[in-house]
Amino acid sequence: MNNQPSLYQRAQNRVYHILDGDVLDPTSRLCEYFIAGLVVLNVISIILESVPSLHEQFHAEFHAFDVFSVMVFSIEYVLRVWSYAQMHLHSGGTAWQGRKAY
Fold first, then answer.
1. What pTM did the predictor assign?
2. Average pLDDT of the chain?
């Protein structure tokens, strides 16, 4: 019997390790910095958008940035829920235990 993980399982495991914040992995670190930077930019955007003259002048840009941010955060959330199935598999648990733990 073949005990090698499938391509699907390897991809899921890789995404899990990237999003879990493995500091030894440059891709994980880049992802972490990108998400943290996007959060900071969102805070700045909300502050600037609260200024009526800026909101009026840059309404379309603020809206586009909001849509982009929601898309990125939604994709991150879905990938985390999907990939956290790997969390307990090594200790004999189920995929749903990992997702529930997240």
1. 0.80
2. 87
